[in-house]
Amino acid sequence: MNFCVIFFAYLFALTVNVQSYIIPREVLDSDGCARIHNEFITKKKTNFSYADVKDCYQRFPFDKDIASKTIDTLIGLVSGFYVFLDKAKEPPKPGFDFRPVDLKSELENFRDKSYSTLYDFTTDVKHLFYDLKDQHTMFGSYCFTTFVFYTNMTFYSVINNGEQKIKVFDDTIDQCNIDCEVTHIDGQQTLKVITEFARNSVYASRDLGVRFNIALDRAYKFPSFAVRSEIPEKPDITYTLKCDNKNPFDVKRNWNAFVQNVKDLNKFKDSKSYFDNICNPSEGGRPVSSFLEITIIPDNLNEIFEQDQSITKIKIINNFISFFKVQDFGIVKFYNEYPADRNGTMNMLPDVIQFKELANAGVKKVVLDFSDNIGGYIFTTYFISLLLFPNTFPSFDIDIRISKQMRLAITEQYKFLTSNNIYDIQSYVDAKTYANFTSAEDFIGNNVYERGGIKDNYSNKYVDGTNINPMRKIIQTYLTTPLPWKPEDFIILTNGLCGSSCALITEHAAEFSNVSTVAIGGFACNKLLSYSSFIGGTVVNATQTFNSLGELGLINNTLMHKPFPLTGMTSNYAMKEVYSKINPDEILDFTFKPADFRLFYDEKNVRNVSILWSQAAALIGSKSKIN
Ligand SMILES: *[C@@H]1O[C@H](CO)[C@@H](O)[C@H](O)[C@H]1NC(C)=O
Ligand SMILES: *[C@@H]1O[C@H](CO)[C@@H](O)[C@H](O)[C@H]1NC(C)=O
Ligand SMILES: *[C@@H]1O[C@H](CO)[C@@H](O)[C@H](O)[C@H]1NC(C)=O
Ligand SMILES: *[C@@H]1O[C@H](CO)[C@@H](O)[C@H](O)[C@H]1NC(C)=O
Ligand SMILES: *[C@@H]1O[C@H](CO)[C@@H](O)[C@H](O)[C@H]1NC(C)=O
Ligand SMILES: *[C@@H]1O[C@H](CO)[C@@H](O)[C@H](O)[C@H]1NC(C)=O
Ligand SMILES: *[C@@H]1O[C@H](CO)[C@@H](O)[C@H](O)[C@H]1NC(C)=O
Ligand SMILES: *[C@@H]1O[C@H](CO)[C@@H](O)[C@H](O)[C@H]1NC(C)=O
Ligand SMILES: *[C@@H]1O[C@H](CO)[C@@H](O)[C@H](O)[C@H]1NC(C)=O
User: Fold this and answer.
1) How far separated are the first and last CA of the chain, in Å rounded?
2) Residues near 423 by beta carbon (within 8 Å), at least 6 away in sequence
3) Is 6's pLDDT higher than 50?
4) For the residues 258-285, what does the mean pLDDT come to?
5) Nearest CA owner, ligand 4 atom 2
6) Nearest residue CA, atom 13 of ligand 3?
7) Which residues contact 252 (CB under 8 A, 6 or more apart)?
8) Taking Cα atoms as reference points, which of 313, 314, 329, 320 lies closest to residue 490?
9) Taking residues 331-346, what's their average pLDDT?
10) CA distance linking residue 170 with residue 147, whole number of Å
């Protein structure tokens, strides 16, 4: 054994970094985090074995005190500020698939549970939030998002002769497998396996068909069947493939763990430093990326657009919005609602004003493609809605659940007017009269609604008032000739993963202007599929909550919760709710809104977006809606 240690030390000293031979052999043997560090330092690796990552994640024992404080914080946050606390207890409307969740009492139940590791506890609590099927309302920890598991194979779903099949979209290890049918996964029927995954492990939509799309999504914004953020149940997975008419055969793959952000590999050398710097970092040590997003597979959408001769590029604005022409129709691809420069609408104008160029190109019909768009700033939604539908008011009616905590926070903010405070209501006006609210009490009003069997106070309904008129003026100034299209000249195309600000734009177009919608993908056996998801009103996170309460001197107020016991933990939640314009008593998040038209992926359009766009464009002006 002694010889072995000397040999290793010698090898490390010769090859690379001095840092590495300070890791004693015993540590390497017993600590997955240390083995990961060692592989990174000695071999420059950025992907690691399932066993090492699993071991690293499971090195932190369950701690009753941490668990209990985590539950305290979450209960405080959701009872004080989560708008759907009561609504989430109601069973789903037909078309949706989720279970009613009594978040507060289910969180309380965790107090009696025991786990062996912090990973197991965190994952279990996270799954409770998954069950809400609301991307806006989540709990998680950066402790367990450093790596994602991947087998280098991705999938898509087609319908052949009425039968839904799963096929290999890409396999970077063996390209011969591409387009083969995946008949079984670990011996079980593939469609069943992926449907179960969509039901339980995908959270960004209340519509199971949309979750099925996300499970197979190749935009890789969220964990999918192919790219997992949680430790898979076992180290490998076996796909049974059927290629052309040949005999089926098995492909067994290991789950490899890829680091999401290489910088994180510099933050630890063993499990202790992993815990101190990633699970519970001091101020400023937190990763900048969202703890929900997946980053390992590059998004090559623009490459595809650039290379395709059938697509005329009018203007490509990276990672925001692009304008194309295909045949005689226009395409506007909205990637998100984050303009490159968020400094007000003036700076966004040069980007979105490109609609003018599309009009100059002479197109009579326009496909608005909002697939894989998970939102951005609300002012973008108002601006787009005003630009395309200038005769509408760009905001839905919105309100806030008024708990004791919320009442106090809004009242204090109304008094102190601190800047960037999430409890600020200054820019809101009454939804009916457009009059300013004259006091916090005037905003809060006296509206008791019963939801999920619970009576609670909600604020008066409001719209965002102050920003709208300046926006109208800017548009009138810079768009001297109005855009030539009427609502019936557009169609909205999505795969259902159009959330938050994206959903606000598409729902606004559909509800205020009767623009047609088409959804792609989902299940063949269900003809209805939502075109948007998790509309919310406003999403805020635990950090913003504490910062805003802090500015108001409410951080130690007995009504308010304490921060999470570990700084790597984070949570976000929907704080406001949006009402339907067409059915004013309905909250859009809980209203099943299937698209007017439906398309399915096939072997061609799944790889060639210009075919898909043509299919959508062909529906513009068509009357044969499915429902
Ligand atoms: C890294 O990934 C490649 C496949 O992409 C695999 O061959 C290799 O074994 C992986 N390394 C580890 C340590 O898992
Ligand atoms: C597997 O996928 C990863 C992540 O996209 C990539 O970096 C790696 O090169 C792939 N491995 C092989 C063998 O193709
Ligand atoms: C996509 O389809 C269109 C229409 O069939 C065709 O003109 C174009 O060449 C195709 N693009 C690619 C990259 O195959
Ligand atoms: C934002 O725009 C305003 C006026 O348009 C300007 O005064 C301000 O400096 C800009 N801020 C940044 C950060 O660019
Ligand atoms: C409403 O308040 C805004 C400032 O937030 C002010 O500019 C506006 O004049 C007020 N409107 C009325 C009708 O008082
Ligand atoms: C609503 O708020 C009022 C205070 O204005 C309070 O007295 C009442 O108990 C609240 N109702 C509910 C159902 O929480
Ligand atoms: C909405 O458009 C459809 C056809 O696209 C039409 O049948 C229907 O009457 C329109 N509804 C309203 C309220 O204009
Ligand atoms: C919370 O939200 C703010 C504002 O969107 C963002 O800058 C910050 O990174 C978020 N923090 C966490 C921990 O998610
Ligand atoms: C809140 O309480 C903590 C601990 O008692 C104290 O250190 C801190 O200064 C207090 N903060 C405020 C704003 O009162």
Assistant:
1) 73
2) 406, 409, 410, 412, 413, 548, 552
3) no
4) 92
5) 343
6) 308
7) 236, 237, 238
8) 329
9) 80
10) 21
What pLDDT shows up at residue 625?
61
DSSP 513-524: H--EEEEE-S-T
By CB atoms closer than 10 A (0-12, 13-18, 19+), residue 9 is middle
CA separation, residue 441 to residues 135, 402, 444 (Å):
31, 11, 5
The DSSP output letter for 363 is -
Is any atom of ligand 4 closer than 6 Å to the C-beta of 340? no
Please report the domains of the chain, with CATH numbers, ordered by start residue: 3-146+266-295 (no CATH), 149-258 (2.30.42.10), 301-395+479-536+579-617 (3.90.226.10)
Q: Which residue has the tokens 């968020």?
A: 342
**pLDDT at site 353:** 81
Residue 151 identity: T
Q: How far apart are CA 330 and CA 348, in angstroms?
A: 21
Which atom of ligand 8 lies nearest, measured to the CA of 541?
1
- CB count within 10 Å of CB 577 equals 24
Q: Which run of H or of E encompasses 238?
A: strand 236-242
Q: What is the mean pLDDT of residues 408-434?
A: 97
Q: Is the pLDDT of residue 13 over 60?
A: no
- Would the pTM of this model clear 0.90, i.e. be above it? yes
Which atom of ligand 7 lies nearest, measured to the CA of 514? 1
Would you state the pLDDT for residue 348?
73
CA of 540 to the centre of ligand 8 (A): 8
- Plot region of 88 (φ>0 → left; ψ -120 to 50 → alpha; else → beta): alpha
- Residues enclosing ligand 3, CB less than 6 A? 308-310, 608, 610-611
Take atom 5 of ligand 8 and give the residue whose Cα is closest: 540
Q: Which ligand is nearest to the CA of 451?
A: 6
Nearest-CA residue for ligand 8 atom 11 is: 543
Q: In angstroms, how far is CA 340 from the centroid of its own chain?
A: 19
Rounded Cα–Cα distance for residues 381 and 536 (Å) = 13
Q: Give the number of other CB atoms < 10 A from CB of residue 562.
A: 12
Which of 316, 345, 373, 571 shows the shortest CA–CA distance to 324?
Answer: 316
pLDDT tens digits, residue range 240-264?
999 998 999 999 999 999 999 999 9
CA distance 118 to 546: 24
- Please give the mean pLDDT across all residues of the chain: 92
72 by DSSP, 3-state: which? helix
The count of C-alpha atoms lying within 13 angstroms of the C-alpha of 346, restricted to the half-sphere facing its C-beta, is: 2
- What is the pLDDT, as a whole number, of residue 288? 61
Question: Is 80 exceeded by the pLDDT of residue 295?
Answer: no
| pLDDT value of position 289 | 63
Instruction: Check if 346 has its Cβ closer than 6 Å to any atom of ligand 4.
Output: yes
